[in-house]
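WARN retry 2 of 3 for item q-0093 after timeout on previous attempt; input resubmitted unchanged.
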Amino acid sequence: MLPNLLIVGVPKAGTTSIFSYLNLHKKVFGSTPKEPGYFHPLRWGEELADILEYEKAFSRYNNEKYAMEATPGYFYGGEKLASKMKELLPSSRIIIVLRDPVKRLFSFYKYKLSLGHLASNLTFDNYLEICKSMSFEEKSKKENYDFWGMEGGFYADLIEIWQHIYGDNLKVCFFDELVNDKISFTSDICNWLGIRFEDIDSNRMVVENKSMLYRSKKLQNFAIRFDQSLNGLWNFLPILKKPFSFTYNLFNSKPHNAVLTDSAKKELVKFYAEDIDKTRLLLEQKQISNFPEWMNRK
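OK item q-0093 returned
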């Protein structure tokens, strides 16, 4: 079995939570792992693996209406990735979730800090300076992905590509709506998919994948491997993960002291303004009109 429902972007916009919520539905089968990343090589100019490797992520599929996966980095693969996905998965439906690019970038930075991919003493302002000092071609290399955060907030050209290839089989959502009312947000997606939201136990809908800093990097690496080994269990019974996460974070987490300064925010708002305007125009053509505040600011 191959998927017919994919959450393709954007990173740090609640895709893990959406995957978990939909995976509670009896007519949706979620892949193991949640991010198979099968199409990722196309983004980096590499060849795809044997399709049989992809099928392994859906080996426990049991005739549900939807087989789903969520690899948010797919969004940035552009036309080459989207076209190949459409070719291999012709009946697939696509979900894209957009987030205020300024807040998305800051969240991306904190996430990379929590993974230990960035120096712990690297401030957000200094991170921006490094990003700005690198050429687009340099940042586009796989090995420099940690510093590609600023470009990750340019949505318009990519939205246009995905719209052109998928048409009505593409749904664009906003992270703001997920945060404000996860019930209404998920219900709207269920309506689009033609399944009943009432078949989801809303008491099991918990927030997933918060970025945190950790006291011990070795313990964090062990926890990541442990979490991945139980990925199938978390997908089937996500509520069981909550007490494990709470206990672990109690002992190994520490507060994030990262700061988004007013000057950095002002600079980034200006940096993304033109692309936000273009994105809004594209989405208006798709009959989307209920925009979050960040898409209306001038």
